[in-house]
Design goal:
It is built from six helices and five strands. With about 190 residues, it is an alpha+beta fold. A hairpin with a 5-residue loop joins strand 4 and strand 5.
Length: about 190
């Protein structure tokens, strides 16, 4: 069954590089791996190993909670399954996960689905926060994924709208010289 060979290859690759907890929650002060970090590292590794991850939401529970200021928060829990499918022979393995999130607007369900995916991937692939250094203990440099032009343009728009920062972009991706130049120019014109 090729699905298990593919899962094993993905685990082996992720064991080498890991996904660090490089982001910090400013309000509570803890470090974390964002869903974007997980997507950015996993997407190319999954593709290289002919492994598709197909989500399925089984249930969604929505509750409203009152905030201290009298507003309301949406508290959502989703139950999700993720089919890991080998594109070579169609064999599959299913992983179940739950995600929880709160939001005062309309993003609680999206956040809960992202949490379910993130933790399903962390558990299924046993993703470490650091890579496994070789025997001589030399530090390994983690290669950041390159950014496609369409995703780059989207990121620049988010930076201009103050939804994303230049630091987050550079921490997550390797930018080409052309992208660095375009970023400087876009920010100067904003």
């Amino acid at each position: 069954m090729k699905v298990y060979q593919a899962i094993n290859k993905v685990q082996a690759e992720l064991a080498k590089q890991g996904i660090g907890k490089d982001r910090k929650n400013q309000a509570q002060g803890y470090k974390f791996r964002s869903i974007d970090d997980v997507y950015n590292v996993l997407s190319s590794i999954l593709a290289e190993n002919n492994l598709c991850v197909l989500p399925r939401i089984l249930s969604r529970d929505l509750r409203l909670a009152e905030t201290k200021s009298g507003g309301s928060m949406h508290y959502v829990t989703v139950e999700a399954e993720f089919d890991f499918v080998s594109s070579e022979d169609g064999t599959k393995h299913t992983v179940k996960s739950y995600g929880e999130a709160m939001d005062s607007g309309d993003k609680a369900t999206n956040k809960a689905m992202s949490a379910a995916y993130k933790y399903a991937m962390l558990m299924a692939f046993s993703i470490p926060t650091e890579g496994d250094n070789d025997s001589d203990q030399a530090p390994q440099e983690v290669k950041k994924p390159e950014l496609t032009n369409s995703r780059f343009n989207n990121a620049v728009q988010k930076i201009i709208a103050k939804e994303y920062t230049v630091e987050q972009l550079r921490d997550t991706f390797t930018l080409t010289a052309e992208q660095e130049s375009a970023l400087v120019q876009a920010l100067a014109n904003a």
